[in-house]
Structure prediction request, 393 residues.
Amino acid sequence: ATSFSEQTEWMLKVRDARDRTAFASLFDHFAPRLRGMLMKNGFGAAQADDVIQDVMLSVWRKASSFNPERAEVSGWIFQIARNRQIDVIRKERRPMPEDLAMPESTDIDGEQVLGIEQEVQKLRSAIARLTPDQRDLVQKAYLGELTHSEIQAETGLPLGTIKSRIRLGLERLRFEMKGER
Amino acid sequence: MTDIAHHIPDALLASYVAGSLARPFAMVVAAHVSICEECRANLAAHETVGGALLHDFEPISVSDDLRDRVLGHLDDPFLAEPARPHGNPTYPAPVVEALGDKPPRWRSLGPGAKQCILEAGKAGSVRLLHIAPGFAVPDHTHGGLELTLVLQGAFTDETGRFGRGDLEVADDDLEHTPIAEQGMPCICLAATDAPLKFSSFMPRLLQPLFQI
Ligand SMILES: [Zn+2]
Ligand SMILES: [Zn+2]
Prediction:
């Protein structure tokens, strides 16, 4: 069998087998990181704990919509966390794009999943190579502390290759949906 | 879907992912992504950046109490989120949602132009514009950012041609006169963060009346 990252394996066990041990592993991995992110974002300890609880329970409850061919676990959880933070800070729901249907079959295209994981590794090392100032700016941008005009379109991050990899996942989904009709 | 030529710039997508984009613009971004595969993939790429950052945050330990609390809630019954409406061939899902699943109620904006305001507030406004073929969107300049997404028909202005799915990004420098093409009326979803200033077409006195 192919070997995905631990996080992907845990998430798939949660999604497909409602595996509590795997969920506890996800919690142990992500909850402290979420806490780091929330405190950096100005949340107090108690408020951060409430958000972590909501986010991790959403991970459990919405697991069926996780698709490793289109998203990587950290990114998927990041998005849930941002949405929850916006709910808490602005008391409003962000308009969301129409959901795409999930593929009927649960077969996983391992090559595609590994491809996304490789892109994520590249992205992480690119972030690690940023100067402290640059990294600070990128963090501020993705934590909602910059306006769109303050965000420099050119962050120096290799987004192009990730974009095309994720696109492959979408194309595969479209192909499957056509096949069903 | 493959004919879309004008997409969402990266800075706007990153800002949407971060949640810092004001609601009216977030609605336009969500509407475009609903019908554009390329921007859907780009949006996911920006979420991946967020994930990479999350992964790298200095972990701060959480209490056993929180861990027990979360694990103890796994069997709780919970309300599934209500099903969200689907988009239709004209209006993408976020617009159908904003319309409350009803057809738009149009109000006249002068000759050949109608609007239906979806939301207006301190953060700006977002509306549907309905422009008859050959007519112009009232001539205006912007106080800030303006996003215009074409949902039906097409318009052209000083910067180019915009058809179904195309997004025009205009800032305060741009003074433009979008004119609807012959054929179907042009329907757009337009968001602004500041009141539009009309340069000539309509007396400024009328602005409060039209909320534009
Ligand atoms: Zn696009
Ligand atoms: Zn304009």
In short: Residues 198-212 of chain B have pLDDT under 50 and may be disordered.
